[in-house]
Amino acid sequence: MIIGQTYFKNTDFVYYPLTNGMITADDLSYVRGHPPELGVMLREGSIDIAPVSSIIYGQYFREFCLLPDFSISALGKTMSIILFSDDFDELSEIESKTIAIPGTTATSAALLRIILQLHDINVEFFNHPEPDLDSMLQKADAALLIGDHALKANYAGRRYICDLGEEWMKLTGEKMVYALWVINKQSAIQKPHEIERFYNYLVKSRDKAFKEMDYISARLAEELGVSQSFMKKHLELIDYDLDARSIRGLEVYFEKAFKYGILTEKPELDFFGVAKC
Questions:
Q1: Which domain holds residue 121?
Q2: Does one domain contain both 164 and 44?
Q3: Which end of the chain is more exposed for a tag (fewer CB within 10 A), N or C?
Q4: What's the pTM?
């Protein structure tokens, strides 16, 4: 089984026991990529399962199945999905301004568009390939960063307008689901037993990661160059399950993405099961 892994510490956390010898899983290999890149790999069939931007599942849901019980989600702020600006502090101030969007994100870019629509704020977006905050803010009035790049900028005390998860909760009262563990549908058909085995590995890895939170957060903090307390606070804000409230939040997100033309249809949630896939 070939498993996708992001470059972000929050997925390194849940995989840490699997990739660092705490749990034996010799039949797995890993390929790293940003969530949109992993979505492309899944569609091409070069990987079997990966944590992929939830909006990508929404765009191509007929090609995928979902691994039950797993997501990267949060109720409120995450500290890692942030709209930065050197000049503005409120969303209302960026009317008719410009926002740079990096190539590392799909779900959060769509979330930002939804949030601005809900506030009736008009901006000009442009794509900036690299998630380099200084370069982005030289060319735009605000910049979206996610994952480790946002964490480092946040830790450094960079000025920002909002944490998108916190803003989403204020507007909707819902959890936000940023990524889903997505399965290539052909893999689901051809490798059902391997996928079930990976599911059990991931359950054990998630449980072990939380039991070893202090140790793992310290290791990840050292790699990123932030304090252990900062990393631990971030990881404790993330939910790795996919409970009923997460599913409701995901459905609200998809509904609004459809309403505002980001999705062309409302996706169905097709959870992995041998008979279904």
A1: 81-172
A2: no
A3: N
A4: 0.93
